[in-house]
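Q: I'm building a small set of examples for a reading group on sequence design. Run inverse folding on the following structure and report the sequence directly after it, with nothing in between.
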């Protein structure tokens, strides 16, 4: 490797380490990972177009469980003798991926639908027990693995720790609903909404009661399910176009959309403001509906979990 390229990779490795990327594995794996990240940051340009791309590195789980775990149809095939540079041309980082291993047994992997959102990558990394490097068509670069998500933001990196690292306080009590539904809502809030700057309020009610009075301003929405991957794109698309809260039932099914939360006098008197209007409204609603879990997503990314007027957890500080 030319000295200039080797120096660039050393500096990139140090920069990633400082940003929170400390992957486990052999030295050969870490070198391969840094090479893939460097390629994502320095893509080839053809006739003014910059191609997207994606690589799945060193998957450790049993391939027999990939399709069911990711809710995707998966087609695999060997690269044979095709050079790495040529193979990259076919990996868009959405439906088609390059799969690399340190032993050189590299493959194609193709899905039956695009799986390139941040939430998709988190699911894939978990199911495949792998590290994923993606350059999205928008130009954003993400690295996803057991360490969480590392996003390139301008000229710096932002580390989003795994939701599992702070979810215990949210799912500890069975009185507040199904832990799997709550975890799915948090993953959606952090990786589908927060990563895209879509400000939202999500309310999860663990019983069949209607809860406190709210102002319903939109028609009854379709019953989209937070745990069904194919339902998340239309849900995200709708939330990007409205104000107000989305209300989900005990099974994680969307029941109301765009509702205006109306706090009681007691909530206004006893619950302090929290950031902007959205977070304050969500916090005061949670005081009036103490069994509910309210997830507030800021336009600049941070996600807060609120219950009974208190803040249970927060994804990051937005810095």
């Amino acid at each position: 490797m030319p000295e200039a390229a080797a120096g660039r990779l050393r500096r990139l490795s140090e920069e990633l380490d400082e940003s929170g990327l400390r992957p486990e594995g052999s030295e050969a794996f870490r070198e391969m990972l840094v090479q893939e990240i460097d390629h994502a940051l320095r893509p080839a340009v053809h006739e003014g177009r910059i191609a997207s791309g994606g690589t799945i590195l060193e998957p450790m789980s049993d391939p027999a469980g990939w399709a069911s775990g990711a809710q995707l149809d998966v087609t695999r095939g060997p690269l044979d003798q095709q050079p790495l540079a040529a193979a990259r041309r076919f990996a868009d980082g959405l439906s088609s991926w390059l799969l690399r291993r340190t032993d050189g047994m590299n493959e194609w992997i193709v899905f039956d639908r695009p799986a390139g959102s941040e939430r998709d990558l988190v699911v894939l990394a978990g199911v495949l027990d792998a590290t994923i490097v993606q350059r999205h068509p928008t130009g954003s670069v993400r690295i996803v693995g057991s360490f969480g998500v590392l996003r390139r933001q301008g000229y710096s990196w932002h580390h989003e720790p795994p939701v599992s690292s702070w979810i215990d306080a949210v799912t500890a009590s069975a009185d507040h609903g199904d832990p799997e539904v709550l975890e799915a809502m948090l993953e959606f809030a952090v990786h589908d909404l927060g990563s895209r700057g879509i400000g939202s309020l999500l309310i999860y009610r663990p019983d069949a009661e209607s809860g406190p009075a709210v102002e319903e301003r939109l028609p009854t929405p379709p019953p989209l399910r937070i745990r069904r991957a194919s339902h998340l794109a239309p849900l995200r698309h709708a939330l990007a176009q409205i104000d107000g809260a989305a209300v989900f039932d005990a099974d994680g099914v969307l029941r109301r959309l765009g509702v205006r939360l109306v706090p009681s006098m007691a909530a206004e008197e006893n619950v302090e403001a929290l950031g902007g209007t959205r977070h304050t409204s969500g916090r005061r609603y949670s005081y009036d509906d103490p069994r509910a879990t309210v997830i507030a997503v800021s336009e600049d990314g941070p996600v807060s979990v609120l219950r009974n007027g208190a803040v249970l957890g927060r994804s990051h500080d937005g810095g």
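The chain has a mean pLDDT of 89.
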